[in-house]
Amino acid sequence: MVDKFSKETRSYNMSRIKSKDTKPEIIVRRYLFSKGLRFRKNDKRYPGSPDIVLPKYKTIVFVHGCFWHLHDGCKYAVMPKSNVEFWKKKLYRNKERDQHNKKELEALGWKVLTVWECELKKDKIEQTLENLYTQITSTQ
Ligand SMILES: [Zn+2]
Description:
By secondary structure, the protein is α+β, with helices and mostly antiparallel strands. It is built from four helices and four strands, in the order ααβββαβα. It has helices at 2-18, 23-34, 84-107, 125-137; strands spanning 40-41, 52-54, 59-64, 111-116. It is globular, with a radius of gyration of 16 Å.
């Protein structure tokens, strides 16, 4: 069991590193669009170039890869075994930047939501997307 688990995790990380796969963002955008929401993509005017900006709801959505953004307590957020110092620095810097961007956006009056890649896995995706839609459209 342990071996199987680590093997899966490793191949997951390797696929993240090799390809610039933006699929999770596309899944989320497609869902929100199908629900009638309209948004801007990768808007560089805001800290962190958010993946999805919904001006009507004053809401911003980030879709984060668990590895690159160090999802807390997530099995996909594991440090690579080699070049540990390099990766530690890089990934913690990403995480710090995320937190900083979120604070800045909230200070500007935006509601900031984060969808994690692991929440878009088969068994969770439906719940995740429904929750996201509710969170976006619910009035503060
Ligand atoms: Zn995760």
